[in-house]
Amino acid sequence: VDNILVNSYFSHENVLRRFGKNSQVSYLGIDNKFFKHIPSSKKDYILSVGGLIPNKGFDFIIESLSKVDNNIKPKLLIVGYGGTTTWTNYLKDLAIKKEVDLTILENVTDEELLKLYNEAKIFVFGSILEPFGLVSLEAMACGTPVIGVKEGGIMEIIQDHKNGLLIPRDKKLFSSGIVELLTNKNLYEKLSKNGIKYVNDYWTTEDAGRRLINHMYRIIEEKKEN
Asked: Which of 112, 118, 130, 145 is most buried, by CB atoms within 10 Å?
């Protein structure tokens, strides 16, 4: 191929490393007309969303949450899909062992997911070397602060302590980040407000469409020059 578009600079590096081919980043976006803040009472759970497979890092989140003091420890709600019964049962057994109140929901509708985003206290993202992390933008758009592991494409979305928290893959540090958001009202409100503005300013589907069209025009002009 003559032109390759990827969803993050992390993906750009992977393509270059694996195939020796250059690529251009065309960031994705989310439907902020649907995923938006709806004033509602926060419920006592933190949320994570993704496929029920090992590289989504749900086990890391369970172990991190287990280190939060029981007096303030929220429940963990995972909205998942796919995967195997073996892995799902492993997560449930791990949660029991680590004394984490875990619920796993599958096959939720978009409307149900929107409600869950808005009612969650915090959104946690523990995926291993995720190329991008679209669900974190959906959570931000709903005004729910995001904590992400400091690796992969999520580092191109979260600006630490500005629109979310970026934390190394360390259970104690990640646990401390959860506690910080649960107990620091000023920081919580700052990240919530900034997250909504951040998505609306740059990460909408319209923004993504403009980025894609600009790449198409660029390619056409390059063809003309050659």
From this structure: 145
